[in-house]
Amino acid sequence: MDVALSLHINTPPSQLIPDQLPTPPTSEPHSPTLSPSVPQRRENVDDDLTVSISRTFDPHSELLPPQPDTIFSSADGVFFYVHRSVIREKSTNGWNGQLPHLPASTYSSDAGSSKVIALPEQAAVLNIVLHAVYGISCASYSPSIQDISAAVDAMEAYGISPKAHILPSTPLYVLILSHAPLAPLVAYTLAASHDILSLAVSISPLLLSYPLESLPEAAVQSMGAVYLKRLLLLHNDRLAAFRRLLPPPPLPHLPTASCQSAEHSSLSRAWTIAAAHLAWEASPDISSSAIEAEFSPLLKALSCLLCAESLAARVRQLIDEWSKVKADGTPSEVDLVISRTRSILPVG
Length: 348
Known about the structure:
By secondary structure, the chain is α/β, with parallel strands linked by helices. The chain has twelve helices and seven strands. The chain has three domains: 1-127, no CATH class; 161-245, no CATH class; 246-341, no CATH class. A hairpin with a 4-residue loop joins strand 5 (70-73) and strand 6. This is BTB domain-containing protein.
């Protein structure tokens, strides 16, 4: 859903105060558009002026009991009606100096006295910022991750700390996470550049398949040295954890007439070679199917049923241990002890 609706009025933008602006009718949900990005609804009045009004932050919004007393205008000409008290409470710099502290009497509601504050952000971006300020979700507008990233940057500029306002309990935090599976690098860079640690940690596992040598320079600069190092360590630790799981070969079974210790030694050597190849080729997010595929030729080459059972059990154990490795690359020591205690004992 687009952020604005349009209507025709006879009032100049500088005089767009709540008591003058007509309320759009609710009976016209689907009307012609004036631009591809902003669907419009029209009033049957003289075509002196067409204005675009925020769907959420309109003059008669019920976000708070009092009517809005401040008007923002986006770079693409959409008007947002907000409450000065809310803006001033959340902003530490007077909305980047645009909204200095003035007595209430300065903001008269008389015709012509209300000033429109022009802002450089596009409506889609400003819409996200204001939803964050009011603590409400903008998910219904389906903003892009690029607009969200620009909005978080704008929050910083307007004295609204992203780190303090994008918390796990907030709608914007949830919205960013919802975009992360399709745009993990953009989402991680957003979190990193504003030092939102919990968000970065939640997103980082989605980058395990990303080749870090291909990171764009802009992303590296934006996320900074600390969060780049976190990402590098995550990849390295995951690979190190996987490689630690590989060495133990399948457990030997008791010698039989058709399979003596020499045959099992051959299986152990084959496992070691396959494990070394897997350790060299593995990525930090190597899948269970890739692990199975590496050891499948060994299984097909075995003529001893007991050796085959031991090999299959060892592969299952490896996959199970790998699935328990945490995002920081360190499997739980308790998990490893339990897993290996329950491993297949020599088969009689």
